[in-house]
Each structure stands twice: as C-alpha cells, then as structure tokens.
Amino acid sequence: MPMNLSKRILSIAPSSTFGMEAKAKEMRKAGIDIVSFTVGEPDFDTPDYIKDSAIDALKKGFTKYTPASGIDELKEAISSKFKRDNNLVYDKSEVIVSCGAKHSLYNIFQAICNEGDEVIIPAPYWVSYPEQVKMSGGIPIFIDADESLSFKITPELLEKKITSKTKALVMNSPSNPTGMVYDKEELKALAEIILKYDFWVISDEVYEKLIYNGKIHYSIASFSEQIKARTLVVNAVSKTYSMTGWRLGYAAGPKAIVKAMANFQSQVTSNPTSFVQKAAITAINGPEETINKMKNEFDKRRKYIVDRVNKINGLRCIMPNGAFYAFVNILELNTPEIRKKIESEIAQTNKNFSTLFSEYLLAKANVAVVPGVDFGSDLHIRLSYATSLENIKKGIDRIEAVINKLLL
Ligand code: PMP
Ligand code: GLU
Questions:
Q1: 11-65 pLDDT, tens digit each
Q2: Smallest Cα–Cα separation from 77: which of 95, 104, 50?
C-alpha cells in the first residue's frame, strides 16, 4: 500500500542535531571510541535539590492532569523570574508552560501563522525554527548574518526583508549555533524597526544564563511597553538547570495570544508533566550557585576549544560570548583538491561541503560534529563544548591530526 504521507510532513527535515548524535551513539555501541561534539545539552547532572522536589511531588501523589497551560504556582514563579532577571512584568495569565522551549515555539508559530505568512529568521539559525514555521503554514525568510558582522543582523538588513506578508522575526541571543550575544543598543535598534513595521518578535532566550566575558543579557521585550506588546519571550529550564530531558519550557506575551497557544496546547499535549512542574518551581526559585558553577566550567572549555581550533590550519573560529557552541569556519578547506581527497577516502560525494567534511571527521577521526548547512551556513561546522575538557582535548587532537594529513 502506498504510504500517502502528507505533503506537509514530507517537506520537513529531521532534526540534524539529534540525527548526528544518534549516529555517534550507534558507532559507540558498535565499540568505536567516538568523541561527540554534537547535541547541545549540558553534560552536568540535574542538581539533587531539584530532583528531590520532583520525588517529593511524586510521593505526595502529584501525578494527575494539571491545567493544560501549567499550574498557577509555576506561572507565578515564572512571572517573578521575569521581573527579577529581565525587568519584565507579566501577569500569570500572560504565561504558558509547555513541554520544552521547542514546544513553546511551535505553539507560537501555530498561533500566529496563516498560510503564506513570512517569518524572518537570521541565519545561522537553530535547526528547528524553519521547520516549525513550515509546519505552521508559514514561509521562513532568511537574513544572512555574516561572520564579518559577528553573525548579527542589523536594522538595514532586517528592513530589506520586510514585506506586506511579514508576520514575525525570530531572535535568539545568546545564539545557537554561533554563541553570539546582541548588545543592548543593537537590540534597541532592531526593536525600532519591528515597531515601525509592526510585526511580532519571538525572542528565544534559553541560553540567557550561559553568557561570558562580562556580557549582559537583555530581553528585547524590556525596552518599552510597545515592544513588549509585540514580543513573545521563550525560555526553559532545560539549559539553565541541566534539565533537558525533563521537558519544560515556557513563554510569555500578550494575554490573547497566550490564550490561543493554551487552547492549541490543550488539544495537542495537555499539561507538561505534573511533577516536573513542581521541580521547575524549585529550579526557578532556587540559588544561582549551581548555574554559576556550570557556567564557569563552560567558560574554561570555551576558551580552550576556540584557542585550539584557531591553531589548526584551515580552521577559524570567532570567540562565542554565550551558549556552549563553537561555530567553526571551514571555508579554507573547501578546495577541489581536498574535496577529491575526502571523496576518494570515504567513498562518498555530497554537494554540501560541511556535510561531507562532517562525515569525513566521523569516519577518519571518530569525532562527531554537526554540519553548518543544517544551521544555514555550509561554510561551518558546529562543535558543542558541553563535554569534558578531557574529551575536548581528545577530539580536537584527532581533528588536528586528520586535517594535517589532508593538507599534506
Ligand atoms: N531554542 C534553542 C536556541 C535551542 O538551542 C534549544 C535546544 N534544544 C531549544 C530552543 C529547545 O529547548 P528545549 O529543550 O527546552 O525544548
Ligand atoms: N538545542 C540542542 C542542539 O541544538 C538540542 C537538540 C535540539 O533540540 O535540536 O543540539
């Protein structure tokens, strides 16, 4: 029987971050010693006091459905967090809790996109934005945020992409995959354009706490009541508290749209896991100490990995100021001779150089990375440094050896 899959589902690419990680895991299972720089999740365990609070909730029988958009107590904790960290005042009716930031983002695109609406996405971008926009009937419109601009868009670049169909702009600072962080003035200038043309801005702030070099995170929503009324802020406990597997994210914005998202969620997933909501309250109200410990460790790794990468012939990497990714430029390696050498050695051809090069690293160096093409730049590969310094050293040594051989 023919599969008859929908056109919509056939147009969606699988998540390559998870795809590369799965490949690495498979090879490891087969006994190969793989160093993985693929999936972006902190390698630290969830702090015990957060785990204990979930256990406590379970023991007390907090195991039933909750209101579909989350419990009031958690929404209140999230409102307090917005006030404390971002200087944003949201009533609990302006907050919705979902199964991860990925889910919050999907709710948003579903709530705002009509067929053919355009959503502007600065590239490089996190892999799921364009696919979620497409799944919601929207059309992703990309702006090239060039490396020479530290991977940031400018008001001029944004203005060029605005049409009568523009529905929203997606902002992600600190960024996955580049690690760049927008300054206050840069965000303010973008906010002016958004207000001038009057569309939504979706501000994905999941890496807000993982920020280095004395940089400060600003939420674009915090500059005025006008821009707040046009912003949907997205965040999660996933990266901040090392809780990726718990699946809890949240969004805040104008009441009408949050209500629409809640309606949608009530028909799709119902509530995020009951006892995870209790643990999220403990996490959000808890001490910053655990975050800072993790952050200091990431900071050491960040400096080490970028320094090592920049000493390898053919690779270049600008210093990221946030998140836990190094977005490494491989342009100099993309020559006809090197391509030919790679293709003959691993018996593969691929029109995307970053995919070909990533396959090569996996086969020859036993190092897994994510091809930049999946983030909108075929000139790069992404290395997540959310792994031990020891692993980073081992992986970079291997990459260096393989590239030196390629360049012989
Ligand atoms: N936004 C960005 C930029 C991310 O890197 C991730 C990581 N998966 C998410 C959203 C989704 O986070 P969550 O695990 O909370 O769904
Ligand atoms: N955000 C992480 C990454 O980019 C997790 C995987 C995903 O959700 O795509 O690797």
A1: 888 888 888 888 899 999 999 999 999 988 999 999 999 999 999 999 999 999 9
A2: 95
Which residues, other chains included, contact 362 with Cβ-Cβ below 8 Å and sequence gap of 6+? Answer: 23, 24, 27, 34, 368, 369
- The DSSP result for 21-33, as a single string, is HHHHHHHHHTT--
Which ligand has an atom closest to residue 15 CA? 2
Return the CA Rg of the chain: 21
For the stretch 171-212, pLDDT in tens is 999 999 999 999 999 999 999 999 999 999 999 999 999 999
What atom in ligand 2 is closest to the CA of residue 16?
9
Torsion sign over Cα 315, 308, 44, 33: positive
Burial (CB < 10 A; 0-12, 13-18, 19+), residue 215, is: middle
Residue type, 173: S
Q: Is the dihedral of CA 53, 55, 57, 60 positive or negative?
A: negative
Q: Report which ligand 2 atom has the smallest distance to the Cα of 176.
A: 4
Q: Which ligand is nearest to the CA of 241?
A: 1
DSSP state of 353: H
- 221 three-class SS: helix
**Whole-angstrom Cα distance, residue 366 to residue 388?**
17
The DSSP 8-state label assigned to residue 198 in this structure reads T
Block means of pLDDT (10 residues each) for the chain, 408 residues, are 82 86 91 93 96 98 98 98 98 98 98 98 97 97 96 98 98 98 98 98 98 97 98 98 98 98 98 98 94 96 98 98 98 96 90 94 96 97 97 98 96
What's the CA-to-centroid distance between 312 and ligand 1, angstroms?
30
Tokens encoding 59: 């023991």
Mutate-to-test residue for ligand 1 from 126, 178, 240, highest number of ligand atoms within 8 A of CB:
126
Contact by Cβ (8 Å): 331, 379? yes
Evaluate whether 90 touches 82 at the Cβ level (below 8 Å). Answer: yes
Question: For residue 400, what is the DSSP state?
Answer: H
